[in-house]
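Treating backbone geometry as a discrete language has practical consequences that deserve illustration. No coordinates are needed to read the tokens, only the vocabulary itself. For completeness, the protein is quoted in full, as a sequence line and a line of structure tokens:
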Amino acid sequence: MDLLEAMKERHSVRRYTDKKIEGEVLDELRRTIDECNNDGGLNIQLCLNEPNAFAGAMAKYGKFNNVKNYIGLVGKKESSLEEKCGYYGERIVLKAQQLGLNTCWVALSFSKGKSKDFITIKPGEKLLMVIAVGYGETSGVSHKVKSIEELCRINAPVPEWFRQGMEGVQLAPTAMNQQKFKFELNGNKISASAGLGFYTKTDLGIAKYHFEIGAGESGWKW
């Protein structure tokens, strides 16, 4: 499964089986987290066999069940943290999908206090949110997305790479499925901005990674 296929097949999953993450799957997941930490200057951490963060009322309200593994998105308290966590978090999410795992972005429906017993947060760092990960009871379902025209501003004929990039953006998971971001094409240069609301900068980071996958590496730049 390549990244384009992973984008199309990946959906949020909130209910998990007892199957453990281990062997080559675990090694690959950890390797990807290490790469993202190195590339993004982050301190993302994998917590395994730890059910306490998803044992409270908020998790039950969010309809989470049997979440025992999650990825803590941790980094330095700076203006770029939310977008970086979105970008590199989604890089991990899609790798997990390729490995046969399921995931769900979680900002509020977990106990941040309990998770901090298992996540190391250095001085000057912040735990932004977590990503539930494991073997889902199902593969999840697709959600409604906005049209490409709603997600971008275009003042010229659309090149094929831009259209493919925006098709990737359409598949980007966002808080409450709001997709509050705009992409703009100016020649071969792309700019992208977040709208107002909670976690929109994180959503923007996710969307930018999806654009890169869809558009490919040549013919454009940020």
